[in-house]
Amino acid sequence: MQNNRGLKNYVPYFIIMIAMLGVFVLNGNVLGGNEEYNYRTLQAAIEKEEMQEVSVTVSEVVLKIKGKVIKDGKEVNFTATLPNTDEITKELMDSLAKKGIDIKTIDAYERNIFLDTILAIVPYIFIFAVGYYVFSKMNSGAANKSLEFGKSRARLEGNIKVRFNDVAGADEEKEEMAELIEYLKNPKRFSRMGARIPKGVLLFGAPGTGKTLLARAVAGEADVPFYSISGSDFVEMFVGVGASRVREMFKKAKQTAPCIIFIDEIDAVGRERGAGLGGGNDEREQTLNQLLVEMDGINDNSGILIVAATNRPDVLDPALLRPGRFDRQITVNLPDRKGRKEILEVHARNKKFESNVDFDVVAKRTPGFSGADLENVLNESAILAVRENKDQIGVSEIDEAIDRVLMGPAKKSRTYTAEEKRRVAIHEAGHAVIGLFLNDANIVRKITIIPRGMAGGYNMMTPKEEKMLHTKSDLLARITSYMGGRVAEEINLGEISTGAQNDIQEATRIARAMVVEFGMSKLGPIQYQSVTGSVFLGRDYASQQNYSSEVAYEIDKEIRDIIDTAYEDARRLLTVHKRELFLIVDALMEHESITAEEIDDLMAGKTLHTELEEVIENTEESIEE
Predict the structure, then answer these.
(1) Digit-coded pLDDT (tens) for 515-528
(2) Fewest beta carbons within 10 Å, which of 202, 244, 296, 455?
(3) Which residue, 74, 96, 120, sits at the end of a domain?
(4) Does residue 140 sit within a domain?
C-alpha cells in the first residue's frame, strides 16, 4: 500500500514528461514555428507569396527545401521534403529562377554529420535532464524530511556581543549568574573544592524583565557556544519526536562543551504531568521525561549549562524543579527606580536627547514598567521626534511616549461636547485632589482630559515610595482615590455618569482582597478564598471558597463598609477643598493636560484665575437648585 501511494505521487510528473516528448517528436515543426509544404503548396507559395532565403539540400533520394515567405504581412518559416527526380528538380528550379529568388544549394554529404546528430538529440537530453532533476529533488526532499524530523531545532549562536553592561536593573540576578561564567571558563577551580555547579538555572518573572537578555549576556561573558530553542520546538503531533529532539540537542551540545543551552518558554514542554481534564499530553510528557533523564546525570553531560525562562513557574512539573535538575531558581523582578534609570541610560546610548532630559525624573514617573516597556518608551519618543522633524528627543516626546505605552495614542479626532469636557475635567480633578490632600495616597504626576484608548481622560498617580508591602492605610487610600472622580461629579454636577466604571471595579477588587485574602477586616485574619489549585482548569474553577452562606453575607457587608467609608472620606475632602478642585478643572479646560509641577504652581497661587470665584459660585448655585 505504501509503495502504491508513492507511485501515485509520481503520476503527474510522468504525464508531463510524456506530453513534452510527444510535442517534440510528433509536432516539432509547430514548436519551431514552421509550416510544412508539399509539392503543390510549395509551387503555389512560389507563385503567390514573396519568398526569400531559400536553401535546397540535395541527396540521392530527397530534396529538403527551407526558407521564409511573407504571409499576411508576417514572416513565416517553411520546410518541404520532395522526391529527388529530374522532372521535379527541373520544375522547381525553373519556378524559383522565374521569380528571381536566390537559391543556396547544399550537398547533403558535405554537412557535419556529428553536429546534426548532436542537434537532433539535444531536446531529448534536455527533457531527461529536467525529469531527473525533478525526481531526484522529490526523493531527496522526502528522505531529508524524514531523517530531519527528529533532529534538534536548537540554533547555535556564536560570537555573542551582549555583555553584563548591556543588562541594567538586575544587579542581584547578575551576581547569581556571575559564578556560572567562572565555572564555564575555569571548571577545575570548582572541582578542586568538591563543588558541583548547578546543572540548570531557571529564570522566571514578569514578561519583559530581561530573562533572555540575561542568558545571552552569560554566554557573551563566558564566550561559549549558545544554543537557543523554544519549548514549543520540542512538541510535535507524533509521540516520541520531541524526545528524539531532546537527545539530539544534548548530543550536539556535548560536541561543543562547555556551552549553554537556553530553553525559552519552558512551560510549553515542562508543564505538570497528568494535569488537566482528560489527562495529559503523551507527546509533551514523553518529551519532558527525556529532558528529565538528560538533566538527571544518567548520561555524562558535564560542561553543559541549561538556562530556562518562563513567566509561569507555578505550572512546571515538580520533578523539573528539584535539586539536580534546575538547582537554582532566580526571580527576575520588575526594576526599581534606580534600576529603571540604569535601563533608560542603556537604551539611550544610540539616541540624542536635549540637555534638560533627566532620566531620574523619567524613572520616577514609570513605576511598574519593565525593561521592555522602558525601551519602548524611548523608541516611541525617538519616533515622535522624527515625526516633528526635531534633531533631539525632548521632554515632551518622552512624556507623550509614556502616555502612549500606558493608554495608547491620543484620540484627537474624538470630540467632546462642552458639557462632557467639563464633566471629565471635574472627574479627573476629583482624583487629583484626593491624591494631594489624603495621607498615604499616591502622588499626582499628570492629569489629562485628552481621550486615550477607552478612557476619556486619566490621572497618572505614583506612590511616594516604592514598597514591597502595602499597609491597610495604603489600600484604603487607594480605594478613596478611586472614589474621588465619582464623588466629584455627584457633588459639583448633581448627577453621576458611567465614567467611574473602571474606578468602581478596581476599588471593589481591592476591598474584596482586603476581606477574603489579607484579613484586613472585622472578620479577622482568616483567608476565606485562595487561588491555589489546578491551573489547567481556569482561575475561576481553581479558586476555593471555604465558607458558609452566613460568612458570605458578612464578607459582602465588610466590603460594602470599606467602600462606603472611602466614599464618605472622598466626599469630605472634596467638599473642604472645592476651591483647589476648580483650580485644577479650570486649568484642564484651558490646557487639557497639566503636570505635577503645574499643579504645585496652582496650589501655590502662582497662576491667577480671575473667573475662579464666579465659576465656583455658579456651580454651587446650580447644585442648590
Answers:
(1) 998 889 888 888 88
(2) 296
(3) 120
(4) no
